C-alpha cells in the first residue's frame, strides 16, 4: 500500500512540474473581417502582431507549468519616438495560460473555467521553425 501511495505521489509531482513547449508554434485570434492577432514562438523568442494597432512586438518568453511568461522588449515603431515617449511600447511582462492544449490567453482573462469574452488565441497548423 505504501508503495502504491509513493508511486501515485511521484506521478502527481512529476505531472505538476512538466513544462510545455511553445517552440515552433503559431497562435491566432480572429477579430473578424480578416483581422488577426498573431503570436509566433521561435526558440526562446516571440513575435506578436496586433491587428488593433498594426504593430509587431518582440520579446523573449519562459514557461512555468501551464503559464507562459512573455517579456516584451520593444515594439516595431519604438525607434520612431523619443526615449520615454508614451507612444513607445517599451518593455513589459505578460502572463498567458495554455488551457486544453489549444487555448492560449492572458491570465487576467481566465475566469476559473472559461475565458472572459471568449478571448483566447488558437493554434495554427503550421510550424514556424
**Category by helix and strand content:** mainly beta
What is the string of helix and strand elements? HEEEEEEEE
- Do you know the CATH topology? Lipocalin
Shape designation:
globular
- Quickly name the level 1 CATH class: Mainly Beta
* Rg for CA atoms: 18 Å
Number of strands: 8
Under the CATH scheme, the architecture is: Beta Barrel
Distance between the termini: 47 Å
Low-confidence stretches: 3-16
Structural overview:
The chain has one helix and eight strands, in the order αββββββββ. The protein starts with a helix and ends in a 5-residue tail after the last strand. It has a single domain, classed as Lipocalin, CATH 2.40.128. With 129 residues, it is mostly beta strands. The N terminus is likely disordered. It has an eight-stranded antiparallel sheet with strand order 7-6-5-4-3-2-1-8, with no helix packed on it.
Quick description:
The chain has 129 residues and is mainly β.
Question: What's the helix and strand layout?
Answer:
Layout: H1 2-16, E1 25-32, E2 35-42, E3 45-50, E4 55-64, E5 67-75, E6 92-99, E7 103-106, E8 122-124
Antiparallel strand pairs: 1-2, 1-8, 2-3, 3-4, 4-5, 5-6, 6-7
Amino acid at each position: 500500500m505504501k508503495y502504491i501511495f509513493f508511486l501515485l505521489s511521484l506521478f502527481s509531482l512529476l505531472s505538476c512540474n512538466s513544462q510545455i513547449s511553445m517552440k515552433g508554434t503559431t497562435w491566432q485570434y480572429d477579430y473578424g473581417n480578416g483581422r488577426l492577432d498573431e503570436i509566433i514562438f521561435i526558440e526562446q523568442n516571440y513575435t506578436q502582431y496586433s491587428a488593433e494597432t498594426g504593430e509587431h512586438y518582440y520579446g523573449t518568453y519562459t514557461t512555468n507549468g501551464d503559464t507562459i511568461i512573455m517579456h516584451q522588449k520593444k515594439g516595431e515603431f519604438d525607434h520612431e519616438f523619443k526615449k520615454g515617449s508614451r507612444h513607445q511600447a517599451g518593455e513589459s511582462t505578460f502572463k498567458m495560460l495554455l488551457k486544453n492544449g489549444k487555448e492560449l490567453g492572458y491570465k487576467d482573462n481566465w475566469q476559473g473555467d472559461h475565458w472572459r469574452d471568449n478571448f483566447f488565441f488558437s493554434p495554427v497548423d503550421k510550424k514556424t521553425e
